[in-house]
Structure formats: C-alpha cells, structure tokens
Fold:
Amino acid sequence: MAQHRRKFDKPFILDALRLVDRGDRPIAAIARDLGIHPNLLYKWREKYRADGEDAFPGKGKLKPEDEELRRLRRELEVVTDERDILKKALAVFSRPR
Structure:
C-alpha cells in the first residue's frame, strides 16, 4: 500500500518553529506531539533561517526572487520572438524585386 506524503501549511510550520524556538522542550518531544519526524523540524528551521518570511510560500506560489526570475524569463521569450519576427520581416523587405 502506497503511503501519501503529508502536506503542511505555512501557519502550522511557523507554529511548530515557535515551539522549537521557545526551547523549553526537546525537539523530539515537540515532533512526537505534532506527529512528525524530528528531522522535519530541523529542515524547516534551516529553511526558515535561510529564507526568513519568504520561506514556505505554499502550493503554486514562489519566493519573490523566483517569481521575478520567472517573469524575466517570460519577458525574454517575448522579446526574442519579437526580434525573430523583425529579422524575418527585414529579410522579406530587403530582397531585390
């Protein structure tokens, strides 16, 4: 029987990290109470430290810098297509008649 992967929303993750940051209980105990593996809390903590409030953007959402990269790639594709069309038009109109 295949096991499906559980998904956690940003508020759940941030609440779990607040419990870890309080430091009054071991991570293993917090993980056990939440029904998750302790390594997941460590991974979440590292991701939060690296990305801050931009960590855990949610399904279908990107971090701001990734969204900007996606937008710029789309824009580059449009500009490249426009350039190619202009090159073809120039070739058509430059032909001797």
